Amino acid sequence: MRRLRVLALCNETLVPPETMEGYSEKEIDEWKTEFDVISTLREMGHSVHVLGLSDDLTPIREAILKRDPHIAFNLLEEFHGVVTYDHAIVSYLELMRLPYTGCNPRGMLLSKDKALTKKILAFHRIPSPRFTVFPLGRKVVRPKRLQFPIFVKSVIDDASLAISQSSVVWDDRELAQRVAFVHEHTQADALAEEFIEGREFYVGVLGNERLQTLPIWELRFTKSDVPIIATRKVKWDRKYQQKLGVETGPAEGLSQEQQRRIARLCKKVYQALGMSGYARMDLRMRPDGRIYVLEANANPNLSYGEDFAESAHAAGITYEDLLSKILGLGLRYRAPWKL
Ligand SMILES: Nc1ncnc2c1ncn2[C@@H]1O[C@H](COP(=O)(O)OP(=O)(O)O)[C@@H](O)[C@H]1O
Ligand SMILES: [Mg+2]
Questions:
Q1: I need a labelling partner for 101 at 20 to 30 A (CA). Which of 123, 169, 175, 255 fits?
Q2: Quick check: 108 and 87 in contact, CB under 8 A?
Q3: In this structure, which ligand is nearest to the CA of 219?
Q4: Which pLDDT score is estimated for 1?
Q5: Quick check: is 124 in a domain?
Q6: Ligand 1 centroid to 136 CA: how many Å?
Q7: pLDDT at 114 over 90
């Protein structure tokens, strides 16, 4: 790939240092993705200008005018501290006619809202757990069709915010309590959906028009038989991860036909939500083999050694190849201003 001028956009607080030396594991965890992506792009010979952003668009405009980048590498997940503004920054890049990596604004907007995603999936007959939304400040009245056990989470937050083993509720009293908890801790509407008992899979998808899926990845607990749920602690607490033996790797024991079906399903979700660049689908599989889509993640975690990069690696795509592919998809994406 030719040498590119890359404008790396990340949160102001996550601008990585030049080296990891002298930092604790906990400190590194904070900006590891940014560090991995930026340092690898530089090793690949690209010229990377890192821009830390919080609540001002001016630096983006200035950097575009001054540095004339070929592309923005989008590592931002919020603006103004608001996670749902991620799509607006990408819209701004389009208005500035700058190619960018990852998902387009529309795909981001649709996939960020888990309830809206599920409504679109329903139209396409893509299975996802039955659900209802309990808006902030409204009384909790469970529709009869929604049966226990029920899983309660925020409609818009990610990273398993406010998700623990107590997210599964078994009666109306627990439901009301958990909805109140989600409202209070996320300040967002609560999504209550059928709890899907079973295995948990993650599937990476790459592409704009022609799509490629990565090998099916599975979450496992090797030292505990608590139900498989990717809680906040499972995702972020290293000690707890060790205690449970949290592990992700290739899903085993699936037939060729099952794997093909899951890959097809994930591509369908990607297309239904109008996604581009790269994404990761979160799925559950019941013991009878029935698959349900939980959510679609635009611009998933690109850390070296995390699920997305690891599953790419299993498909023979090195970390450098992966970043090259993502840059290439960003450059080729047919944004409306190009037409
Ligand atoms: N309906 C459900 N049934 C079973 N587990 C669920 C359900 N919804 C969420 N979970 C568990 O909670 C985790 C986080 O939920 P998810 O919808 O993926 O939100 P996030 O955006 O925080 O990743 C999932 O990875 C899964 O383990
Ligand atoms: Mg998820």
A1: 123
A2: yes
A3: 1
A4: 84
A5: no
A6: 20
A7: yes
